[in-house]
From TrEMBL:
InterPro entries according to UniProt: SAM-dependent_MTases_sf, SAM_O-MeTrfase
Keywords recorded for this protein, A-Z: Catecholamine metabolism, Methyltransferase, S-adenosyl-L-methionine, Transferase
Coiled-coil intervals, chain numbering: none
Region described as Disordered: spans on this chain: 288-309
The protein's name: catechol O-methyltransferase
Species assigned in the record: Cladocopium goreaui
Source taxon at top rank: Eukaryota
Biological process per Gene Ontology, one example term: methylation
Lineage: Eukaryota, Sar, Alveolata, Dinophyceae, Suessiales
GO molecular function: catechol O-methyltransferase activity
Similarity annotation: Belongs to the class I-like SAM-binding methyltransferase superfamily. Cation-dependent O-methyltransferase family.
Length: 309
């Protein structure tokens, strides 16, 4: 198909030639990963439009958006690296187990398309509805007086824009905010915006090899309230060995390592590591990092048998 602009006889050299034929229009510029995300948005927009013309506007909810993303991901070549299926169950339970006391917030590291951000936002919204109906949550508390209840951090601006759009579609933008940047640079902003000990839930889903550094920054800045729940995904695939070692041996954490299947992949095993932070004064001395403990003559720490944790 060609979209050549008709040639203008007066000034031929100045006429821009817009042609898909010569591949000017983005093809080759977008990676296949981004193209798949474009297809996801197209799927969601088309399904939304279909619902609207059928008069089902009120059925477009966060749960519906999550189901549509699941449906899209089941298509051939459309798998998405999101925490769905069994992984979502653990996350959902963790959110439900943390009370929404005033001035407590939750954070996600790695938004991607906003799938878990939507799940977390919906879980919080459900708690508001329940708490407001029972009278245990005041309406003003539910909005934290203007501040968001969940912050999701994302390094890739394209992913961040998609996540914001998905949250808008799910009508959860008043609960979840997406911040663009690297987790390590954005963590200090949590202290500025929400204050010390403001976190009661953390979902780690960025890059496994940085989990332990990001966790120690949270500890150093005193951001986690005692009993803060930390759920870390993809701990075996691609893997976060130092984080698994630290959370398992440190006396500051009560940790359970769950073995489960990857989203929509019944033959691929992965771990979600769930810890409760017991507070800065918990336990005796802090154990050194594995490479410090192994020393020069010791067994290289990389050969530490992760399955013995
Ligand atoms: C596995 S995906 C997150 C999936 C999402 N939590 C879900 O389940 O719907 C990982 C995301 O983390 C982002 N990411 C990786 N390293 C990061 C970092 N250091 N800071 C912020 N985002 C990061 C990636 O761009 C990617 O979008």
């Amino acid at each position: 198909m060609s979209y050549d602009v008709e040639e203008d006889e007066e000034d031929e050299s100045e006429v821009p030639r817009l042609s898909f034929g010569n591949r000017l229009a983005l093809s080759g510029v977008l990676s296949s990963g981004y193209r798949k995300l474009g297809m996801l948005i197209e799927h969601l927009e088309t399904r939304t439009w279909e619902m609207q013309i059928m008069g089902g506007d009120q059925r477009i909810t966060a749960d519906w958006v999550l189901k549509e993303i699941d449906r899209f991901a089941q298509g051939l070549g459309k798998w998405l690296k999101v925490a769905g299926d069994d992984k979502a169950e653990i996350l959902q339970h963790s959110i439900g187990s943390r009370p929404l006391t005033e001035h407590k917030t939750m954070v996600e590291f790695g938004s991607f398309v906003g799938y878990t951000a939507t799940r977390m936002g919906r879980a919080v919204e459900r708690s508001y509805e329940k708490g407001f109906a029972e009278g245990s949550i005041l309406f003003e508390d539910s909005r934290l007086q203007g501040a968001n209840r969940i912050t999701s951090m994302e390094i890739d601006p394209v992913h961040a824009c998609i996540a914001r759009h998905v949250l808008d579609m799910s009508r959860l933008s008043h609960i979840v905010e997406v911040w663009i940047g690297q987790v390590k640079d954005l963590i200090p902003r949590l202290t500025e915006e929400h204050g010390d000990m403001s976190l009661n839930m953390v979902f780690m889903d960025q890059r496994g090899t940085t989990f332990h550094d990001d966790l120690s920054q949270l500890e150093e800045l005193g951001l986690m309230f005692p009993n803060c729940r930390i759920v870390a995904d993809n701990c075996v695939k691609p893997g976060s060995p130092v984080y698994c070692w630290h959370t398992t041996v440190s006396e500051r954490y009560k940790t359970t390592n769950y073995s489960l299947n990857e989203f929509l992949e019944s033959t691929i095993e992965d771990w979600q590591v769930v810890c409760d932070y017991l507070g800065p004064l918990a336990g005796g001395h802090q154990r050194p990092m594995p490479w410090e403990e192994a020393g020069d003559g010791g067994e290289p720490w990389r050969s530490y048998p992760i399955r013995d944790l």
